[in-house]
Amino acid sequence: MFWYYRRLDSGLAVMHARPEHAEPLEALQITCFPTLADEERFKARHYRKHQAIFDEGQFVVVDGDRVVGATATIRLPFDFDHVDHTFGEIIQGGWLTSHDPDGDWLYGADIGVDPAYRGQGLATALYAARQELVWRLGLEGQVTGGMLRGYGAVKDTMSVDDYYAGVVSGRLKDATLSMQLGIGFEPRALLKNYLQDPVSDNASALIVLDASKDVPGASRDLARRYVRLTTPVPGPRGAAMLARRAAALPAGLGKATDVCVERAHGSLIVDVDGNVLIDMASGIGVTGVGHAPAEVVDAVTAQTQQFVHTCSLVTTYEPMVRLAEVLNAITPGSVAKKTIFANSGAEAVENAVKIARKATGRPAVICFEGGYHGRTLLTLTLTSKYGLFKQGFGPFAPDVVRLPIPHLYRTPAGMTEDQYVDFGIRQLEQAFVAQVDPSACAAVIIEPVQGEAGFIPVPPRFLLRLRELCAQHGIVFIADEVQCGMGRTGRIFACEHYGVVPDMVVSAKSLGGGMPIGAVTGRADLMDAAHPGGVGGTYGGNPVACAAALAAVEILRQPSFLAHATRLGDVMREVMTAWQRAYPIVGDVRGLGPMMLAEFVKDQTSKAPLAPDDTLAIVKGTVARGVVLMRAGLFSNGVRLLPPLTMPEDMLREALDALGQSVASVAERLAAANA
């Protein structure tokens, strides 16, 4: 797991080694240890193996994209009664076969620094990273064999025992061992045949840095956390980038935070100032399988090396056909299905409505209050929340009917929740008399869990009755699962929670693993209704996006992935309902699985929405504490949580703790103001 990132004063960065570093690491070792026997030198394949068995124990120093320093570590139950070991014993066959994930010592292969970068404290920085790993994992300390780099030059004038004793006592200086002793390592033994290198005449020293020792640049507090803040957010580089954005991009392109991203991996974002933040927004639910997962990166890389684009309207290619086959297989329902691809969720919704109209020969489309379906002309017509999304952009598309939907948190006074759902169903049934005749209705489109409205799960009886009415009147039932689909609720599709089988399912966001793609999957007879050439687009089904989606879907459809996602949802609900008990401004905690939201109110009795600025203060306070998130809700008074579904539970709890502190701060400020 990649969690460590530290920006040095020089601008260089210390971080976990990644697969793409393997070849540069092999080249670096040749540069750093030119006289080392080839059979004892790590190759690119060995570095990849290190990462496979213990990824968080491998560190690099990078200057931009250039690797200029590195170290590799393993865990071992080290036997200090057996100190006459050799490097070959630890590194058998060229990689660290003796790694023990339960070992209580961190054993480190020697640190290498590019000669052009020596004297900048990079070795100390790498030892600091290793010591933080010791603290993080609760180990006894780190052990390594430090080369006696200077002994080869004086071997004809003194014995190795005298040289070792002189360096340990401080009478002699050795480029490697003296530096290590200065950091705090303690010598344990002289190893006379440790590795084959004439520079040291094969000699080395077994040295130990136990967990009680501090190392310059290492933080015990940060070692046990994921958030690492070295500047405010934004810092100076971030502020400069935001100024450039303001000058170059239109004001209408809003932004939820002032975070300026340099890199991201897993569930962590590193900003341009070197701050490490936990991502609880996932690019509005896009990175469900995490930032830059190896499977998706490898799939994209492989596809770009074959071809990037030929257009589905001109040619046919495997990634598009295969992805369609997969989606046809995993969407609910056992009928024959087909899929068409688009560039986004909004474009996919447009395709779904077009196909439904063509298949039925009817014009009207029913949507619901609170729904969000996109920002194109038709989808903006379907979208609710007028002031934020629609103001000044009319006129809108015709033949769209918008109906109310029961929002159980706001059940009218005097009604039970069941009575409110009954009333909503009666309104639905009456709409087919008062607003649109069923014979004129092509489709109903609904989000099983409304996203922008504030993560509102549709009441099951309402959704089931809607499905019945569509079947009764030949109306196409479209489930918009752009945000709530692809594992976001702990199931591949949210409608699976309801036992509802749509006629069409719209997918996007997490489908692409970070790449832009949308899809409509539906009954084959409906999908075939459009005439040849009637649907499609230049980039729909782009091979690179399809390759990424195939890798992402393979990850998220695994039972273990979905079980972990469900566990994350359980943790969110547990922590957030405790806020509801503690703070009067937390009115409701809701969602489905790990798609969760807290709605903030002035008080829990009136349920009057908290002022948008106060909700924004919660968001800003949380970002300042190192967690990226954003608002939602018709009244902009909710904070939505959309973490990557690969997020470790301890990271989630750290993020929730930061959000909880911000909630407490605003709650206390408002209570004091009202006192």
Topology:
Elements: E1 5-7, E2 13-16, H1 22-32, H2 44-54, E3 58-63, E4 66-76, H3 87-90, E5 105-108, E6 112-113, H4 122-137, E7 141-147, H5 160-169, H6 177-183, E8 186-191, E9 204-210, H7 220-223, H8 236-248, E10 261-265, E11 268-271, E12 276-279, H9 282-285, H10 294-306, H11 318-330, E13 337-342, H12 345-360, E14 364-368, H13 377-382, H14 386-389, E15 400-403, H15 417-434, E16 441-446, E17 449-450, E18 456-457, H16 460-473, E19 476-480, E20 504-507, E21 518-523, H17 524-527, H18 543-556, H19 559-582, E22 586-592, E23 595-600, H20 612-624, E24 627-628, E25 630-632, E26 638-641, H21 649-674
Parallel strand pairs: 5-7, 12-24, 14-15, 14-16, 16-19, 19-20
Antiparallel strand pairs: 1-2, 2-3, 3-4, 4-5, 4-6, 7-9, 8-9, 10-11, 11-12, 13-21, 17-18, 20-21, 22-23, 23-26, 25-26
Helix pairs in contact: 1-2, 10-18, 11-18, 15-16, 19-21, 20-21
Summarize this, please?
By secondary structure, the protein is of the alpha+beta class.
Q: How would you describe this protein?
A:
The structure is a single chain. The chain is built from 21 helices and 26 strands. A hairpin with a 5-residue loop joins β25 (630-632) and β26 (638-641). With 675 residues, it is α+β, with helices and mostly antiparallel strands. The protein folds into three domains: 5-223, Aminopeptidase (3-Layer(aba) Sandwich); 236-285 and 560-674, Alpha-Beta Complex (Aspartate Aminotransferase, domain 1), CATH 3.90.1150.10; 294-557, 3-Layer(aba) Sandwich (Aspartate Aminotransferase, domain 2). α1 crosses α2, α15 packs parallel to α16 (460-473) and α19 (559-582) runs parallel beside α21 (649-674). Strands 1, 2, 3, 4, 5, 6, 7, 8 and 9 form a nine-stranded mixed sheet that branches. Strands 13-21-20-19-16-14-15 form a seven-stranded mixed sheet, sandwiched between helices. Strands 10-11-12-24 form a four-stranded mixed sheet.
